[in-house]
Amino acid sequence: MADSSLPKTLNFNVGVLGHVDSGKTSLARALSSTASTAAFDKNPQSKERGITLDLGFSAFTVPLPEQLKESCGEKQYDSLQFTLVDCPGHASLIRTIIGGAQIIDLMMLVVDVVKGMQTQTAECLLIGQLTCSRMIVILNKTDLLPTDKRQAAIDKMTKRMHKTLENTRFKDCPIIAVAAKPGGPEAPETDEPHGITELIDLLKAQAFLPRRDPSGSLLMAVDHCFSIRGQGTVITGTVLQGSISVNDTVEIPALKVTRKVKSVQMFRKPVPSAMQGDRVGVCVTQFDPKLLERGVVCTPGSLQILYAAIISIQKIEYYRGALASRAKFHITVGHETVMARISFFNRVLPGKENGDCSPISQEQNANSFSFDWEFHHLDEYLTGQAEGGRGEPQQWALLEFERPVTCPPLCLVIGSRLDSDIHGNACRLAFHGKLLEGIEDKNYTETALPRLKISKDKQKEGAVERVTDDYTVIGRNLFKKETNLQLFVGLKVTLSTGETGSIEGGFGQSGKIKIRIPGQQHCHCLLKNLTLSHRVLLFIHRFGPVSMLISVCKRTGV
Questions:
Q1: Which of 8, 19, 306, 396 could form a disulfide with 120 if both were Cys (CB 3.0 to 4.6 A apart)?
Q2: Cβ 225 vs Cβ 236: under 8 Å
Q3: Whole-angstrom Cα distance, residue 121 to residue 91?
Q4: How far is CA 15 from the centre of its chain?
Q5: 8 Å CB contact between 124 and 155
Q6: What is the pLDDT at residue 443?
Q7: Tens of pLDDT along 290-314?
Q8: Residue 328 pLDDT > 80
């Protein structure tokens, strides 16, 4: 016997993404029969400009398709609700797109059939590849094509889109042509949209039973907050994980407050609970809605507040800029976007000497990390083949956030350069990865980073001043007189003639050093080969915090 408390309607989240003015909101409006409180551009600025500035939500319900009746098993749903997440297309609002894309099961990529793929269309496609497994391409605004050439133009654009998608995870996705708002936004409502019935049939055919797990801690992505006189404050959003029930206590981590759930609604219908994937309104009391427009709600104490993080990292191939250590990027993590400084590193393989770091493929170490490993600092992200030719080498990065962020473990991380020219045609999404280690200590540079064993090769050049005995030479021009030479005692020195030695200590007060040449490398022999102009190469290896790489190094090992 099925549990009577289970909802009869299966919720399926569909993201509507695409370039600005491609007709996403018109498409969502044409598809929808019920609009939620956040639907269709609540922002006054959006109404003035005629574009979506925030996530809009709306929904429509259809009888449960036959293919889902079999896969639902004991969960006896009788209808399927498509919740449409209308993501903004304006380039400066890509952070909102990323936030919206993390809560969708299927993506509709809306393309202006006249203009084809544009910069933001490509960025939306990249975000889709990182966040969902299925996609439908909508060729919109077919009413703008001349009637006698319409089908030929649609066929040509369909072929072009298949070519664009052939190297992506969506290479075999369906493509359908529609006119969501014939005549444009100002046209009378009497003009019927074209192709919407066929699109609904396609959506029903593409729908699947999403993974829905009510267990674990609650995490709800909030997109809107408003008050109802006499009732309290309603927080609307999508349950990303876990479940929520009436009388639960929830936390708003950004404000460090907890509140009791008074009631729960799904598209204006009261329900006793909701679970992962559901779009809900949650009513709480004694809370000012102005304090929370976007963010997350969670089980008390379940989320980390991070000042820094270790992530796995992979460059997005269409990003043309350099990925250099110490650079700043916009980091979208959880449902927040914040600036962070990044430092790249890869792993030193056991048994490798002198910091030799043969690249390890992504496959070998995907999403794993340990403070026990030894790493090698990278001045910039490595591209090319890993050892064995299996993809790019595995790399990690340290992110140091400009302000604390709240996010769950192992969440998606996307790095971008949102400050670049929004009218340019360059991809602004730079890299993606997973959060592997969150650092919650505000004083992480003193407590957490010293545990991170990252080495950096440094090279200094100096000159041999003279030979003092059979096994000792004096070197100069390597250090300033105020340098603490004890930090460098024992480090390896290579002479330009091939001999090796080590630093014994300082010589005098001017920064000169005494170098010991051991064994059979006799210094009387060197006299024949060395002059005062010959160089000494000093290779320094040190472990310590990435944030101190440029400063004078404390020596903890060679």
A1: 19
A2: yes
A3: 10
A4: 18
A5: no
A6: 92
A7: 888 777 899 998 888 899 999 999 9
A8: yes
Quick one: DSSP state of residue 76?
A: -
Highest mean pLDDT among 148-162, 188-202, 498-512: 148-162
Q: Which residue, among 419, 446, 444, has the nearest Cα to 430 in the 3D structure? A: 419
162 token code pair: 């298949």
Q: In CATH, which of 2.40.30.10, 3.30.300.130, 3.40.50.720, 3.40.640.10 is domain 304-350+394-454?
A: 2.40.30.10
Which residue(s) pair with 137 in the sheet?
109, 175
> Which backbone phi and psi does 327 adopt, to 5 degrees?
-80, 160
Residue 326, token pair as written in the block = 């110490």
Maximal CA-CA distance, the chain: 101
E strand or H helix at 208: none
What architecture is the 219-298 domain classified under in CATH?
A: Beta Barrel (2.40)
Name the strand (E) or helix (H) holding 342: strand 336-347
508-528, pLDDT tens digit by residue? 888 888 888 886 555 544 433
Q: For position 243, what pLDDT does the model report?
A: 94
CATH architecture of structural domain 9-206: 3-Layer(aba) Sandwich (3.40)
pTM: 0.73
Cα–Cα distance between 415 and 432 in angstroms, integer? 6
First to last CA, the chain: 68
Which three-class secondary structure state does DSSP give residue 489?
coil
Characterize the bridge pairing of strands 395-407 and 336-347.
Answer: antiparallel
Helix (H, G, I), strand (E, B) or coil at 385: coil
CA distance 364 to 378: 19
As given in the structure block, the two tokens for residue 215 are 């267990």
User: Where does 456-541 sit in CATH, by number?
Assistant: 2.40.30.20
Bridge partners for 243 per DSSP: 275
Give the DSSP per-residue string, 296-338. Answer: EEESTT-SEEEEEEEEEEEE-TT--S--BTT-EEEEEETTEEE
Tokens found for residue 447: 């407590």
Give the pLDDT confidence score for residue 89 in this predicted structure: 47
pLDDT band of 492, cuts 50, 70, 90: confident
pLDDT at 228 over 90: no
Q: At residue 467, what is the residue type?
A: V
3-state secondary structure of 159: helix
d(CA 54, CA 224): 10
pLDDT band of residue 540 (cuts 50, 70, 90) is: very low
111: closest CA among 137, 79, 78, 91?
Answer: 137
